[in-house]
Automatic annotation (TrEMBL):
Family, as annotated: Belongs to the RER1 family.
Chief localisation class: membrane
GO cellular component, one term: endoplasmic reticulum
Bilayer topology term: Multi-pass membrane protein
Any one Gene Ontology BP term: retrograde vesicle-mediated transport, Golgi to endoplasmic reticulum
PANTHER family for this protein: PROTEIN RER1 (PTHR10743:SF0)
Location within or outside the cell: Membrane
Residue ranges of the TM segments: 75-94, 100-117, 179-196
The keyword GTP-binding is annotated on this UniProt entry: no
Domain of life where this protein originates: Eukaryota
Protein name as annotated: Protein RER1
Length: 230
């Protein structure tokens, strides 16, 4: 009995030491987490930006600089995006998988395209109010360019990022969910037709075209009167 009592006491002391050690480790982790949180906002113990913060800040500046430089090259940007999508489709075809990822990418691009075709201010919300700009419906009205809900540059940027994310997902087997892909193709075609039909009806109802080629110029009547010499 005495031996059992000693064993019980030893186990209690060992458990208590283990708890104390874990508690100390937890407090150390909390302290380190707070220190790293202070570094993440750009301030270390000495009040200077951390190296990690400066690296990511510089990386973001370079990325934004390249985006700004690519803004006027619309055709080149879209050719690169189409090339990436072609490479992605070839990769999916060769791997014979990741159909769910491809379907999600198609739905994402469809939503971006609908936002690209839609006006920034929905005309149906302005039927009963005279506030804000409206789309011109007559030739003698003032010229108003079509303002999109999703601008072209943001449309391109989001579409390209979606392709890159989908391509990255093809390197992980966890995203390769087995599915009967013809059903996804039929469902996507049906969803595309229904969505575009609703968008075209919206354009016809409120009489707008989601493209602006420039201000239309109207010619006045030609002067056909005769001049008399004095």
């Amino acid at each position: 009995m005495f031996f059992c009592y000693l064993c019980h006491q030893a186990k209690s002391l060992l458990l208590q030491k283990t708890i104390n050690s874990l508690t100390y480790m937890i407090f150390q982790l909390i302290y380190l987490a707070r220190m790293s949180e202070g570094d993440s906002i750009g301030e270390s113990v000495h009040g200077k930006p951390s190296m990690v913060y400066r690296f990511f800040t510089r990386l973001g500046q370079i990325y934004q600089s390249w985006l700004d430089k690519s803004t006027p090259y619309t055709a080149v940007r879209w050719i690169v995006t189409l090339g990436l999508s072609f490479i992605y489709m070839i990769r999916v075809y060769l791997l014979q998988g990741w159909y769910i990822v491809t379907y999600a990418l198609g739905i994402y691009h469809l939503n971006l395209f609908i936002a690209f075709l839609s006006p920034k201010v929905d005309p149906s919300l302005m039927e009963d109010s005279d506030d804000g700009p409206s789309l011109p419906t007559k030739q003698n009205e003032e010229f108003r360019p079509f303002i999109r809900r999703l601008p072209e540059f943001k449309f391109w940027h989001s579409a390209t990022k979606g392709i890159l994310v989908a391509m990255a997902c093809t390197f992980f087997e966890a995203f390769n969910v087995p599915v009967f892909w013809p059903i996804l193709v039929m469902y996507f075609i049906m969803l595309f037709c229904i969505t575009m039909k609703r968008q075209i009806k919206h354009m016809i109802k409120y009489r707008y075209i989601p493209f602006t080629h420039g201000k239309r110029k109207y010619k006045g009547k030609e002067d056909v009167g005769k001049t008399f010499a004095s």
